[in-house]
Input
Amino acid sequence: MPTTVMDEVRARVVAPNPDLDLARVAYRLTADLAKPNPAIYWTDLLLSAAIGYGAFAVLFVSGMTLIGFLAAVISVLALYRCILFIHELTHLRKRTPRGFWTAWHVLVGVPLLLPSFLYDGVHNFHHSKAHYGTPEDPEYLEFGRGRPLHIALMFPISAAEPLLLVLRFLLVTPVAAVFPPARRFVVERMSAMVMNAAFRRSEPPPFRTSWLVIETVTTIYAWTVVILVLNGLVPVKFALMWLAVWSAMSVINMLRTLAAHHYENDGQPIDVVAQLLDTVNVPPPAMLPMLWAPVGLRYHALHHLLPNLPYHSLGQAHRRLLEHLPADNPYRQTINRRFSEVIVRMLRSQARHRQAAERATSGDKIMATFH
Output
């Protein structure tokens, strides 16, 4: 008879149907890791923001020199790390450190025109068993069943994202405020960070008031920057460099998103284990994921299994699961060693589906001949 939590966990993972209990077992193994550490959150955000903005200042002063290039890389990676705290804000909500939501918007959300309402209330569909990998999933496209061109098209779209956000807050928000009938269209189709263009957002959730406040503040900020640039108080060079850094962050985020899943689902709802197998972890010893998938997002499969764990606990949780789950547990199949492994699997999946489609077409032609 199990005498401790760990004994109980070990008994469960060797049960006849371990897949059915995987999420419950993982929760029991990591329950003590669920509390966010305010010191880690504040130190990480403030240090990353200081490095990111400081490096951008060096870039602006140095221009297109070797030092300027290195500063640009540092600025992009540090500010990109800051941006991805939007993921933590969405999942932890009231459990984030006191004042962290406001500080993140002051440092990142408003300056980069990425207020949290663009993600909060939308991202949760991506975690729903009923919506994951279906046409109602805002963050999923069937890349594993498409063509390489579909992946390639994501690059120009991502690079243009900063300009689209500028237009969203500079022009669209005022129009929606003056003409209320336009507001519904804006909420449905222009108020969410999505991959799936067919996704339609419903009316704002309970955080309607904070949405309106932060949207107004972001719009005022956008117009202030434009006015300062037009009056020569902010150099055009500064604005162009800022857009370039911003665009680079968007492209990196697109690459991270491509590597987060295998995108092989056929649009039908799937269970927890199938969702897990379609999702990717890129744990150590790989080092580069620290840069392109920071703030815990290198453990994306684990995050889908335990979405309420704070980012700083995911590494320890991953090691704990590997230590206690049996060798044939599906969780181990989520592990990839590098970005290229994920992309190669996606391309191979595309090739298999093209070949299957060609065989089916050939079979139809043969049957038509006999008829």
